[in-house]
């Protein structure tokens, strides 16, 4: 009897659940067309709204949409740190897991604090009004040189510790830009993995967020001299970088190049006769999963750089980002497999996808889908050839290929914008009237501006990285103890093994048994 009663109740509830949607269908709004009417404004204004109240509500909602977009995409970019940690750790050896993971973990808070104290101010302290997020204009003090009748902005001078700028737009901008900085900061941890002393890394992480990254960032995104090449010298719209091929990725790649060169190769990488020993990573599944996390986070990285959810160009940006990642992965795979005559290396598949993402980051808003595919295709070939060149010709040991992925393809992405920008977007960019056009669409001066920006990045970032490396080296030394490097850095540097219960041959890169 009880079973029948319970069964009857369940069937009755199920029938009611199925019937309710049918009964209420006419009262719903399945297309969303009836949502957000004047009645919603009336409710907010407690009566019949005036024209001014309607306009104020519409304006507030537009800014709120933009603010929410910036914050949510910033959260996506923050999650990319997990992707970087997995890629770098998977492509290095099991005996260094705790050390590599710890670098990827601590670069986040350390870089953030450096950016909070002074990096944000140096980068954005003179940028002017935050137009898409309410127009706050308090970040208006740029240190400027006046030469040849022109103004050359070098760095901002307000916003240290966010002091004096207790404004929601500034706080949203800080969060979004901080996680971008963190991407730059973590790139060298892969190139210098498995032999970098943790204390030296610790100090570096403070420097990158406070000084190295923000200065070049100011020149491009903070209203500095590279952004004004268009206004000052009629070079297109100045150096244009929508989401960071130069500001973020190339900067990280150049730091990695300098640090990797000065730090020297891992023990056992090169033989006395000049031959090279492959040192495979210990966990390819981890690296592949990390790559997918990064590709997912890139939908915050690139579309989020519009700083406006109401700028519907974000759809073009997102699709271009996706397409370039695909062609980059396919190109690197086929190039290794068919041209280089090797197996289709999974680690190079990952780096091909990341190279495509890096390369499309600057031009993603300014090119069509065919160009996006071509940019990714070229990046997939570049990353393979650059990785071999860096390892064999420059003799720089980069365990994860960070220099080839971020440095080389960051530069390629900026140059690609100067070639393929099709003139359908960017009117008023950097204060220059008209849309952004590349060389193939009639504006050779834009390509020149892109070349100037790439050159400036190599010179400035390379020089300051060299100085900071030498400074840290004098203070604490960069290179881990050779014995610790051979046995693995986890216990000597971090105090704990990354994998508990896994026995290691002290000269081996891989686990022996459990």
Architecture per CATH nomenclature, i.e. the level-2 architecture of one domain: Orthogonal Bundle
Largest sheet: 2 strands, antiparallel
CATH homologous superfamily assignment of one domain? Ammonium transporter AmtB like domains
The count of strands amounts to 4
What would the principal axes of the Cα set say about the shape?
Answer: globular
At the first level of CATH, what is the class of one domain? Mainly Alpha
Adjacency order of strands in the biggest sheet:
1-2
For the termini, the CA-CA separation is: 57 Å
If you had to describe this structure to a student in words, what would you say it looks like?
With 514 residues, the protein is mainly alpha-helical. It has a domain at 55-312 and 410-424 and 439-494: Ammonium transporter fold, CATH 1.10.3430. The protein is built from 16 helices and four strands. The protein has helices at 2-23, 38-45, 51-90, 97-124, 168-191, 198-221, 229-233, 245-263, 284-301, 314-339, 346-361, 369-392, 402-420, 444-475, 482-487, 490-494, and strands spanning 142-147, 150-156, 503-504, 511-513. A two-stranded antiparallel ribbon has the order 1-2. The N and C termini lie far apart (57 Å). The model is unreliable at 16-27 and 505-514 (pLDDT under 50).
């Amino acid at each position: 009897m009880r079973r029948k009663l319970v069964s009857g109740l369940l069937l009755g509830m199920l029938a009611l659940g199925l019937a309710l949607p049918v009964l209420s269908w006419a009262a719903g709004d399945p297309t969303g067309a009836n949502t957000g009417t004047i009645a919603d404004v009336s409710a907010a204004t407690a009566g019949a709204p005036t024209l001014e109240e309607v306009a104020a509500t519409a304006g507030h909602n537009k800014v709120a949409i933009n603010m929410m977009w910036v914050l949510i995409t910033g959260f996506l970019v923050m999650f990319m740190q997990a992707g970087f940690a997995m890629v770098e750790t998977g492509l290095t050896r099991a005996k260094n897991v705790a050390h590599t993971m710890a670098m990827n973990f601590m670069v986040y808070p350390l870089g953030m604090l450096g950016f909070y104290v002074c990096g944000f101010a140096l980068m954005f302290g003179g940028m002017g009004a935050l137009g898409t997020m309410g127009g706050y204009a308090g970040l208006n003090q740029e240190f400027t040189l006046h030469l040849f009748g022109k103004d050359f902005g070098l760095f901002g001078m307000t916003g240290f510790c966010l002091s004096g700028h207790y404004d929601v737009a500034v706080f949203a901008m800080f969060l979004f830009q901080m996680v971008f900085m963190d991407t730059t900061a973590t790139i060298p941890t892969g190139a210098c993995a498995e032999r970098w002393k943790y204390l030296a890394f610790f100090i570096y992480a403070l420097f990158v967020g406070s000084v190295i990254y923000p200065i070049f960032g100011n020149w491009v995104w903070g209203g500095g001299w590279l952004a004004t090449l268009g206004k000052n010298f009629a070079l297109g719209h100045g150096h244009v970088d929508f989401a960071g091929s130069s500001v973020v990725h190339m900067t990280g790649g150049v730091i990695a190049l300098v640090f990797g060169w000065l730090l020297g190769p891992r023990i056992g990488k090169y033989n006395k006769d000049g031959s090279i020993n492959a040192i495979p990573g210990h966990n390819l599944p981890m690296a592949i999963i990390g790559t997918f996390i990064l590709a997912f986070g890139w939908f915050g990285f690139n579309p989020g750089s519009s700083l406006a959810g109401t700028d519907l160009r974000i759809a073009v940006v997102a699709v271009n980002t996706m397409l370039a990642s695909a062609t980059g992965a396919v190109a690197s795979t086929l190039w290794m497999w068919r041209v280089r005559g090797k197996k289709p290396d999974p680690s190079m598949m990952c780096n091909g996808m990341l190279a495509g993402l890096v390369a499309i980051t600057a031009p993603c808003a300014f090119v069509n889908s065919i160009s996006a595919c071509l940019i990714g295709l070229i990046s997939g070939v570049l990353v393979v050839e650059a990785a071999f060149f860096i390892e064999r010709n420059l003799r720089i040991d980069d365990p994860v290929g960070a220099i080839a992925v971020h440095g080389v393809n960051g530069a390629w992405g900026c140059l690609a914008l100067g070639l393929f920008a099709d003139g359908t977007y960017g009117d008023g960019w950097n204060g220059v009237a008209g849309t952004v056009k590349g060389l193939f669409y009639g504006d050779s001066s834009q390509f020149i501006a892109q070349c100037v920006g790439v050159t400036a990045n190599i010179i400035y970032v390379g020089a300051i990285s060299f100085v900071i490396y030498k400074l840290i080296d004098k203070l604490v030394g960069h290179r881990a103890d050779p014995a610790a490097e051979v046995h693995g850095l986890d216990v000597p540097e971090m105090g704990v093994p990354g994998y508990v219960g896994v026995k290691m041959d002290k000269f081996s890169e891989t686990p022996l048994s459990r």
